[in-house]
Amino acid sequence: MKRILGILVLFAVVYLATWIMADLMTGRQSFLSGFNQENLLRRTALFGILGIGVAFVIITGGIDLSIGSMVCLVGVGVPWCVTELNWPVWLTLAAALALSVGIGFFHGTLITKLRLPPFIVTLCGLLMYRGFTRGFTHDQTAGFGTGHKGLRLLAQGEVPVPFLDNFGIPVPFLLMIVVAAAAAVFLNKTIHGRYLQALGNNEEAARLSGIPTDRMIVLSYVICSTLSGLGGLLFVLEVNLAQPVDAGNFFELFAIAAAVLGGCSLRGGSGTILGVIIGTALIQLLRNMITIVFSDIQNMEYAIIGVVLLVGVVADELVRRSAARRRAARAA
Fold first, then answer.
1. Residue 212 burial by CB count (10 A; 0-12/13-18/19+): exposed, middle or buried?
2. Consecutive sets of 10 residues in the chain, 332 residues long: mean pLDDT of each?
């Protein structure tokens, strides 16, 4: 809870600082404009869904580096199947869901049955899924064109807010809230959620206590890949086109960074969905600040995000060591 409070305070400080520098000091309303705030919510939602997925894997002590390539595979593959192969939308979406679940099962099985390191398995996935996508599309851009407006409302639609002109809550943000609520209930209120956390704390002890650790690991990767596929669909629906060569690039890093900033320990065993959402919002806010306030150094965006992530990891390690010293002192 202290980690969540800390990241929430940091978010509030950055938000106020951006507002002061972008609006009050310049006399413009670029940051607090309805368009910019809607865009912040939309980007937080799209990356937040990816962050929720990878949080389940990190809580078990694993990692998934294939998220960006999964976004590419589904984000490019779905419109390609609809427009090039003339598949019905329902069949394409069902195939995308089955593929996402299957990839997660594939990752989990390699990790549990062959005892391969998650880093290696998902790194290979990162290379394979983008390579496959570039292969079957021949590096051609895919999109829905002007059709399928009902489907594109999932990512482009918004719900008007009473008494606030020119502002609406993006549909992806509402979808993220639903996903986050379901994930939080699963993680905190079900026996399987407690199994996942116990597994991350000590896999061997969890196995000896009767927890089906292999099945829980597979489940975590299935959840992650499924939400990555959902994220890929929402991303392509938002912009209505995707290029195999760069769709989803570095998305896994943003998702992992959001989870770590939100309190998910890379050692496993701890993490909250609310923290992941706040961590995602902070990263998207920093990106927005760089674009609006520090446009001259916009090409250093990844460096700034990297510094923030490093600070978060260092802070997590210091807090862990401090807690360990307090426990040792009490025991003594």
1. middle
2. 78 91 77 89 95 95 95 94 90 96 97 95 96 93 76 77 79 94 94 91 89 94 96 90 89 90 82 92 91 81 79 72 81 76
Cβ atoms of 99 and 74 within 8 Å: the answer is yes
Domain 2-19+33-318 = CATH 1.10.3470: yes
Burial 99-137 (b: 16+ CB within 10 A, else e): bbbebbebbbbbbbeeeeebeebbeebbeebbeebbeeb
Compute CA distances 272 → 2, 4, 81, 235, whole Å: 12, 8, 36, 24
**Residue 134 near residue 156, CB atoms below 8 Å:** no
How does 43-70 read in b/e, with b if 16+ C-beta sit within 10 Å?
bbbbbbbbbbbbbbbbbbbbbbbbbbbb
Q: pTM above the 0.90 mark?
A: yes
Strand-pair partners of 168: 160
